[in-house]
Amino acid sequence: MAISIAIGESYVVRAPGILGGKPHIEGYRLGVHTIANLIVRGNASPEQVADDYGLSLAQVHAALAYYYDHPAEIDAILDENLRLEKEFSDPARMAELRAQAHQMMMTRYGDADMTVAEIAEWYEIAEPTVRIAIKKGWLLARKSGATWLIKRRDAEARWGDR
User: Rounded to two decimals, what is the model's pTM?
Assistant: First the structure.
């Protein structure tokens, strides 16, 4: 009769808020798929990965053990990452996504006034950047009480289509 006991620490964990619940090294935002990709699909050694990422060899080997126990799961993650990389590096696809974002903005705002916060969120820039552009005269705006209002078309002229 064989008895199974756990020896040592469990280095590979899953947490819903970290890497989308994918298996990763505990205490790090480093997925098993990244380690497997570097060693199994790449040409890195376990020692090199441990050194590059500040891991122990035990952590690296635990990730590899997880990979070898669950190759279909980890290969599916790697294949999906590769698919996304190709999709978002395709100029035609990026142009399509920009056009969709522009249409979304037009639907939401038309040529309406937008606040500094809305422009900052839409263009993924800091609110102080928008305020500086107004102050320097790079962006037309008008004040309504304590709120700056900017025409969507003026923001688009400054920061382009998104």
Answer: 0.55
Q: Which of 38, 66, 88 corresponds to the end of one domain? A: 88
**Tokens linked to 62:** 């635990």
For 17-59, what is each residue's pLDDT tens digit? 888 899 999 989 999 999 999 999 899 999 999 999 999 999 9
Total domains, the chain = 2
Q: What SS3 state is found at 18? A: strand
What is the distance between the alpha carbons of residues 55 and 34, in angstroms, rounded to a whole number?
Answer: 13
Collect all residues with Cβ–Cβ distance below 8 Å to 119 and sequence separation of at least 6: 125, 130, 150, 155, 159
- Please say whether the dihedral angle defined by the alpha carbons of residues 116, 117, 118 and 124, taken in this order, is positive or negative: positive
